[in-house]
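User: Quick sanity check before I run a bigger batch. Here is a single chain. Can you write out its predicted 3D structure?
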Amino acid sequence: MIKRRKSKQIQIGDVKIGGDAPISVQSMCNTDTRDIRATVNQIKELEDAGCELIRLAVLNKDAANAIKDIKKQVKIPVIADIHFDYRLAIQCIENGIDALRINPGNIGRDENVKKVVSLAKTNNIPIRIGINAGSLEKELAALDIPLHEKMVKSALHHIKILEDNDFDKIKVSLKSSSVLTTIEAYRQIAKIVDYPLHLGVTETGTLKGGLIKSSVGLGTLLAEGIGDTIRVSLTENPVEEVNAGFGILKSLELRQKGINFVSCPTCGRCQIDLIGLAKKVEDALKNIDKPITVAVMGCPVNGPGEAKHADYGVAGAIKEGYIFKKGEIIKRVPEEDILKELLLLIENEN
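Assistant: Done. Predicted structure follows.
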């Protein structure tokens, strides 16, 4: 069992982050926020996938205006991602946003910061300080110290600005496209502050490579008890980010959403088309949201043992398969009937 770092708890909409709250999974729309219909449609797809928080880029006044209509049509909390313009932050708060991602040191004069913080405090709006290795302040970027230390210094600078304005509904992220830099930055900040941490490796790339980088980076930190909410960044449909996020949490037994799918890598002993069968079973069960374990195994060596430990399973033999339920063989079927019989059993009981 992973012992999680103790952190303060904040709340975004109806989602608690930090403390003893479950680690939440979030994503970011890749639609133009000004296109209300496209943005709402994508958020609803993400809601169906289990996404718990969604972030929108707010690049101008029209995007900030769209927040009001978007909020009326979606269920999950919405976070506004804003750079440089404090007026957009104020506009988003007035339009019902649930949280802000804004670095207070980047929005101009102290009086501008005070306006945003005062309104956020009045409306109970948390602020995420989002440090990105690629956009550090010039004076920090010039320092002759490791990159992760520059990121931590930047985070502490922005935290101090908010604290000096008597604001503590803070969430922090320190993202880099380098997995090792990201890990070290989070490890260091976790020892210094107790604010909840938003984990992510940024700009990881397309699906295959991005999943590897995110799984290594986020998985390492989560296994050390660091992290309160996560976003897997992929150059892909953001639904895949949500699926990956829950998959990472499930692998560490930090969240249990959907089936736990077990299948072997196959070898020369396998006498059925296990690769094709495994893909079809996993795809057919992707919408089941119950914490059940399903094993699809190829041969009699490890197959029966793994299938016995699963809620449902199949162990392949020579052109046939043994269907298991709760550790007991309930049916022996020819290869062409394995998929149908296994799915029929699971669907009838779930």
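The mean pLDDT is 92.

User: Great, the batch can go ahead then.
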